[in-house]
């Protein structure tokens, strides 16, 4: 199955303008842009996969070409990463498209491998995405963000067959913090997707949904149109995973990098 990894990146983020070009300190004291770190994460995935950055911004294109990335220019009308991946379809040749969003440099390679394997095993699956059970540190970061009225990571709830029921920027399900169970029954949605080309084309044919618009979560368009979203539980293997959603997340990610 020929796989392409696309890294959608836009400059005009409402929460963090210029986010792909934000620089983060590395463990050796140097710094890299967020988009280069995500490119490195894509290159770490085992297998002979084509890797592209998909953007509509010349500043991002110039920066990416500077570290050797292949860049696909896409329209500035793309409202989210899934639409940007769909806009790049005509420029690539692949049976499976992996969307590794440009704000997730801590994504371990085995998260993506798990999606590719799931899609290879289940030929009826149109889309798959990883979910990661929260440890106490991650759960506390979710709660901290909500208390500070920040939009942080996304949580996922799914049925016993691991088909997605809902995704939210709220912490779901609700848990009484005085009775926090172990393990914690909250799953962090990892912002990576694997789609078949037909699923991306169908996505573009559907209008933006009400839940998608209110939550600002692109994957809800699939659920709102009755499409099955396969949730693949992954194991962080002791590593801390967090996306860069807000400027406050820079120090969180740099702290992780400093320990690596």
Structure description:
By secondary structure, this protein is α/β, with parallel strands linked by helices. It has 9 helices and 12 strands. The strands form 2 sheets. Strands 1, 4, 5, 6, 7, 8, 9, 10, 11 and 12 form a 10-stranded mixed sheet that branches. It has a two-stranded antiparallel ribbon with strand order 2-3. Helix 3 crosses helix 6. The radius of gyration is 17 Å and the shape is globular. The mean pLDDT is 90.
- The Cα radius of gyration reads 17 Å
Number of helices: 9
- Report helical residue fraction: 25-40%
Q: Please provide the ordered H/E string of secondary-structure elements.
A: EEEHEHEHEHEHEEEEHHHEH
**Quaternary state of the chains:** single chain
Largest sheet: 10 strands, mixed
Spans where pLDDT lies below 50 across 5 or more residues: none
Classify the secondary structure makeup into a structural class: alpha/beta
Total number of strands: 12
Terminal-residue CA separation: 33 Å
Compact summary:
The protein is built from 9 helices and 12 strands. It is of the alpha/beta class.
Set out the fold topology.
Elements: E1 3-9, E2 23-25, E3 31-33, H1 34-43, E4 50-55, H2 58-66, E5 71-73, H3 81-87, E6 96-100, H4 109-121, E7 127-133, H5 136-147, E8 154-158, E9 164-168, E10 187-189, E11 192-195, H6 197-205, H7 210-215, H8 220-224, E12 230-234, H9 249-259
Helix pairs in contact: 3-6
Identify the notable features of this structure and list them briefly:
single chain; 260 residues; alpha/beta; two-stranded antiparallel ribbon; 9 helices; 32% helix
């Amino acid at each position: 199955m020929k796989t392409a990894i696309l890294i959608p990146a836009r400059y005009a983020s409402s929460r963090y303008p210029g986010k792909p070009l934000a620089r983060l300190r590395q463990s050796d004291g140097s710094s890299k842009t967020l988009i280069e770190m995500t490119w490195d994460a894509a290159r770490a995935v085992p297998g002979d996969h084509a890797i592209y950055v998909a953007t509509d911004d010349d500043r991002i294109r110039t920066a990416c070409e500077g570290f050797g990335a292949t860049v696909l220019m896409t329209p500035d009308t793309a409202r989210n990463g899934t639409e940007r991946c769909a806009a790049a379809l005509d420029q690539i040749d692949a049976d499976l498209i992996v969307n590794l969003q440009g704000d997730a440099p801590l994504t371990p390679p085995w998260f993506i491998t798990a999606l590719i394997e799931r899609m290879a095993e289940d030929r009826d699956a149109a889309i798959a995405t990883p979910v990661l059970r929260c440890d106490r540190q991650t759960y506390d970061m979710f709660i901290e963000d909500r208390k500070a009225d920040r939009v942080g990571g996304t949580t996922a709830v799914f049925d016993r067959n691991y088909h997605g029921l809902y995704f939210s920027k709220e912490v779901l399900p609700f848990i009484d913090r005085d009775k926090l169970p172990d393990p914690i029954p909250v799953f962090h949605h990892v912002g990576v997707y694997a789609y078949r080309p037909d699923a991306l084309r169908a996505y573009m044919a559907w209008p933006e949904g009400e839940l998608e618009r209110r939550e600002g979560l692109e994957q809800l368009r699939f659920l709102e149109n009755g499409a099955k979203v396969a949730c693949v539980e992954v194991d962080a293997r002791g590593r801390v995973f967090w996306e860069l959603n807000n400027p406050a997340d820079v120090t969180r990610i740099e702290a992780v990098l400093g320990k690596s």
